[in-house]
């Protein structure tokens, strides 16, 4: 006999829409309120609909995704520059460092918001009404 869990009785949440709302810095539930209270500090609750966002556990995954994306972009850039000798070594080094820092800072907030949106949509870590 199959075991019924609490998530079996709840209606499904839109995963892609929630992830995109989170990436835009909006509440995954209503799309109006803000997910962040500071640069990458997730608000305890949505300021529009009151959805509790304190259950999130978006600690490490956004950083890993950031390293993955930025690393692939920078390695591609380095391969092109080194293959065609477009810049000397020191210029390439400083440009690469600047690209790494700027792109990592620009991507951190959308990636963290996306992870919070995914956790909300998939009812992970207390977003489904159960204790973790």
Structure explained in plain terms:
There is one protein chain. The protein has 132 residues and is an all-alpha fold. The two termini are 25 Å apart. Helix 2 packs across helix 4 and helix 3 packs antiparallel against helix 4. The radius of gyration is 19 Å and the shape is elongated.
For the structure shown, list the relevant keywords:
0% strand, 132 residues, elongated, mainly alpha
Termini Cα gap: 25 Å
Order of helices and strands: HHHH
Structural class: mainly alpha
Kindly state the percentage of residues in helix: 40-55%
Low-confidence stretches: none
Radius of gyration: 19 Å
Proportion of residues in β-strands = under 5%
Q: How many strands, what sense, and barrel or not for the largest sheet?
A: none
Overall geometry: elongated
Total individual domains: 1
Number of strands: 0
DSSP summary: helix tally: 4
How confident overall, as mean pLDDT?
91
């Amino acid at each position: 006999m199959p075991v019924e869990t609490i998530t079996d009785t709840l209606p499904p949440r839109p995963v892609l829409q929630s992830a995109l709302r989170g990436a835009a810095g909006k509440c995954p539930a209503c799309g109006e309120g803000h997910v962040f209270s500071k640069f990458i500090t997730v608000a305890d609750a949505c300021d529009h609909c009151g959805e509790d966002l304190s259950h999130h556990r978006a600690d490490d995954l956004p950083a890993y995704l950031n390293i993955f994306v930025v690393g692939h972009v920078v390695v591609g850039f380095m391969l092109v520059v080194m293959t065609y000798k477009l810049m000397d070594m020191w210029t390439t080094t400083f440009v690469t460092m600047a690209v790494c820092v700027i792109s990592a800072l620009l991507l951190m907030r959308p990636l963290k918001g996306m992870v919070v949106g995914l956790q909300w949509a998939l009812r992970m870590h207390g977003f489904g009404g159960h204790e973790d």
